[in-house]
């Protein structure tokens, strides 16, 4: 006979303690590791602290760091431009490529397991290791591309091409991640929807774009958020190449250069991190709004 759940009053004293710990401990960890550093960065962005001396000696400079960033800090606007290009390539190239690969694998082509593993393999590698792997391909003197074509292009050193070279490597990794997300979504689509569309005379293309893709709306939203955040937090790859200089400036590398670099400008770097936080929060806000609306 099924018993009726009467809320937390039904739990024993020991269970209440365990439930309380399961709520409190993760909350404290998130507050300590996420919210306190984020709030601290925002507060430090209004100071000129260089990381040396007591906290009591910190001087408030108001919005001066933000004015300096937007007016007299040369790498800032190129970094914004590069982040937008990074986002566009991930959204319009890597994401459709990952979706296309997921559709092919979902159709059960021969060697599905091999292709699935091969395409997903770069995802488990760090972007730093991806950078070293592509260094073997892009190397000016002994790289695969220049050896095959006889070219002398310095793919990682030439500021006119190094961003695009890095984007090819990032696309190689990101498309595998997107493929896995869409493959999971495709497996969850009700087969009767495809059969109904086929009975109505829809082609494979019409079935996918008008029936299957709209059904995978939660996956589409997750892919959009993941792509946006991955584009903003892109760091490892360009840092391995040239520490985010000479045509590879990104907001994340500028934060690192100012906070832990030789300059050690904590306040200035915190202002850059705050700008990055605000940009990231925009899409997260829309994502949470969509999720809460669905709930």
Q: How would you characterize the overall build of this protein?
A:
The chain has 295 residues and is mainly alpha-helical. The protein has a domain at 79-241: Orthogonal Bundle (MetI-like fold), CATH 1.10.3720.10. 70% of the residues lie in helices and 0% in strands. The chain is built from 13 helices and no strands. The chain has helices spanning 13-44, 64-71, 76-106, 112-120, 127-138, 144-149, 162-187, 191-199, 204-215, 217-232, 236-242, 251-259, 266-294. The radius of gyration is 24 Å and the shape is globular. It starts with 12 loop residues before the first helix and ends with a helix. InterPro entries: MetI-like, MetI-like_sf, UgpAE/MalFG_permease. It comes from Terracoccus luteus.
CATH topology of the domain at 79-241: MetI-like fold
Report the CATH C-level class of the domain at 79-241: Mainly Alpha
By CATH, the architecture of the domain at 79-241 is named: Orthogonal Bundle
Main β sheet profile: none
Query: Helix and strand string, N-terminal first?
Result: HHHHHHHHHHHHH
Q: What average pLDDT do the residues reach?
A: 84
Report the total helices.
13
How far is the first residue's CA from the last residue's CA? 31 Å
Family: Belongs to the binding-protein-dependent transport system permease family.
Subcellular location: Cell membrane
Keywords: Cell membrane, Membrane, Sugar transport, Transmembrane, Transmembrane helix, Transport
Domain ABC transmembrane type-1: 80-287
